[in-house]
């Protein structure tokens, strides 16, 4: 059960995907949020965590509702 909880908290790849889908660079997001490029890079690689305030700023810059970061992933499991 612990790995499911940890997997659910991995928001970095979701942030990176949202940023790339919108054609933003890390520099663009950093400038829009007032956060450092290094922090955003670490966050996208799940090497650090962010405060709620930082997540709200990033999601606002990306035009993404904060709640979508915590929704379960939609995957299709196909067994042989």
Structural notes for this entry:
- By secondary structure, this protein is mostly helical.
- It is 55% helix and 0% strand.
- Helix 3 (26-33) packs across helix 5 (52-62).
- The longest helix is centred in the last third of the chain and has 11 residues, at 52-62.
- The protein starts with a helix and ends in an 18-residue tail after the last helix.
- The model is unreliable at 1-5 (pLDDT under 50).
Q: Percent helix among the residues?
A: 55-70%
Helical segment count:
5
Distance between the ends: 25 Å
- Specify the biggest β-sheet: none
| Fraction in beta strands | under 5%
The assigned structural class equals mainly alpha
Based on Cα principal axes, name the global outline: elongated
Average pLDDT score? 87
